[in-house]
Specification:
The chain is an alpha/beta fold and 305 residues long. Helix content is 40%, strand content 20%. The structure holds adenosine monophosphate (AMP). The site of adenosine monophosphate has 17 residues, from helix 2 and strand 5.
Length: 305
């Protein structure tokens, strides 16, 4: 079925309700994105389509989460290609609102605060980023609640549809924060995490990769190599020896390492020293961030043994 583009909340509600009713659907999925879509986003969309009767993808570059106006201005915008990619995955509706539609009163007075979890790692170098991101995710999750455009009698007859929203493991801190927001504030939605999609050489797909030169891209591969080293050591129940993996990244002159650590997957608190030095057991996340040329790259792998 061709995808339908909607730009207002009212049209989103009308069209999603129409689709749910005509399909006698019992579930709706939401895939929030900022556009400039690639195969990572396609995996989110595909998973949502497999699991739900109606799927909405949102495309919105949220000014509230950009500290730097030039970063916001140069964020790639590729709507036609995005629609084609989403249609290829079977997404029903693309919701691409204007800034005024999302923030009709200008910058919102009341916002979500991300607490200590939003201040560390990415939050440390991007102050306010996660407050802005969570505020828009809260709004998008509300827009996507299924049945909002159905007459009350229709909802009562069919019961409340299931509601799921899809986020990439790639942005591990965002995912952990969205899970906390949904749990702490009782949002009526199930959060589904989708594993990171990588290029054949291992680089995690990102809309920002297009700003890397060939040489920088080659250098950036050290991030995944270092993460994979930890993954292999964890699987083999060896000591993680984070320091040697850090040294490997630092030996690459084009890469400016910001952080590289092994953390608890929910709280993102660093694991105790002895978890790194004794044979690894349990579940953790290895997080890395680095500046390569003009681009800030983040990546992570789950560790388990
Ligand atoms: P963005 O458009 O960058 O805000 O990302 C929208 C969603 O796609 C977020 O949930 C991201 O975590 C997810 N995403 C981005 N890149 C990837 C990737 N390489 N693999 C899986 N999910 C991704």
């Amino acid at each position: 079925m061709p995808i339908k583009l909607v730009t207002t909340v009212a049209d989103l509600h009308t069209e999603s309700a129409r689709l749910l009713a005509s399909r006698r659907g019992t579930s709706q999925g939401l895939v929030p994105t900022m556009g400039a879509l690639h195969q990572g986003h396609a995996a989110l969309a595909r998973t949502a389509v497999e699991q739900n009767d109606v799927v909405v993808a949102t495309i919105f570059v949220n000014p509230l989460q950009f500290g730097d106006a030039t970063d916001l201005d140069r964020y790639p915008r590729t709507l036609d290609a995005d629609l084609a990619l989403l249609e290829g995955q079977g997404v029903d509706l693309a919701f691409a609102p204007s800034v005024d539609e999302v923030y009709p009163g200008g910058t919102p007075l009341v916002r979500i605060t991300s607490g200590v979890l939003g201040e560390k790692w990415e939050g440390a170098s991007r102050p306010g980023h996660f407050d802005g991101a969570l505020t828009v995710v809260a709004k998008l999750l509300h827009y996507g609640i299924p049945g909002a455009g159905l007459p009350a009698s229709g909802v009562a007859e069919a019961g409340l549809p299931a509601y799921r929203a899809y986020f990439g493991q790639k942005d591990a801190q965002q995912l952990a924060l969205v899970r906390r927001m949904v749990a702490d504030l009782n949002f009526p939605v199930e959060i589904v995490a989708v594993p990171t999609v990588r290029a054949v050489d291992g680089l995690a797909l990102s809309s920002r990769n297009r700003f890397l030169s060939g040489e920088e891209r080659e250098a950036a591969l050290v991030l995944f190599r270092a993460l994979r080293l930890l993954e292999e050591r964890a699987k083999a129940r060896e000591p993680l020896d984070l320091e040697s993996a850090q040294a490997m990244v630092e030996s690459q002159p084009l890469v400016g390492l910001d952080y590289f650590d092994v953390v608890d997957p929910a709280t993102l608190e660093p694991l105790a020293e002895n978890c790194r030095e004794t044979p690894f057991r349990g579940e953790a996340l290895a997080l890395i961030a680095a500046k390569v040329g003009p681009v800030r790259l983040i990546d992570n792998v789950p560790l388990s043994s």
